[in-house]
Write a structure and sequence with these properties.
single chain, alpha/beta, Rossmann fold, two-stranded antiparallel ribbon, 10 helices, globular
Amino acid sequence: MSGTPVVFIHGLWIHSTAWAPWIELFASEGYEPSAPGWPGDADTVEATRANPEALDGVGILEICHHYADHIESLDAKPIVVGHSFGGLIAQELLANDLAVAAVAIDPAPIKGVKTLPFSQLRSGFPVLGNPANKKRTVSLTAKQFRYSFGNAVSEEESDALHAAWTIPGPGRPLFEDATANFRRNSPAAVDTHAAVRGPLLLISGSEDHTVPKAVTLEVLGMYADNPSSITEYHEFDGRGHSLTIDSGWRSVADVTLEWLASKRLGAAAPANNS
């Protein structure tokens, strides 16, 4: 029997190849993992940095459709694991019955979230501070990355992560997310109330500046009135937004694997294609 597919979805400013250790681990556990980039991403960090214009104007809907197309090419309905904006996308795919389960790690806020901590505002300012960024890509400096991603690791490790994995990110998803509560048909909307779906695990780092845990806990509360579907929460004390790519990534991956096993979604479990 072939392994259950797992699709990893990266967030803003991080290239999909940063999932390489996760892919190796999940493959060793018998899963069939993949980590496609966003539409416009090149195959490598260097190539994406060299052609940032390919990501200009890419928004949440385009990203969702891109991953839906990838899922359609798979032999079975996958588990989706997303970080940051990838966590928002993972929830949308799950709510639309395109995945058997989802893990959303430090997920970007969905429509309806009202909590807006200062650290989140500061993290988004490099993009949201200039309206022209809605149609173009923006790169983070090492200092900006340190605040938004690497605040819970050493400066040396933060700078190394910035050098290894950061890519320009399209501004449009941030603007779409920031205005979600003012738009009737926001692409950041997720059906938290009525969708009959597979289980969802929300993960937060207690020191995350980009998506503070208060935001993720509000999202958890939004799912509370959907008793037909499982939603659970796990918090990593002392961890920041870099928790999927820094030296502590394995603890996050292990919790993900343990949770999947607890839901009988092990590597050899048959995926539901209905």
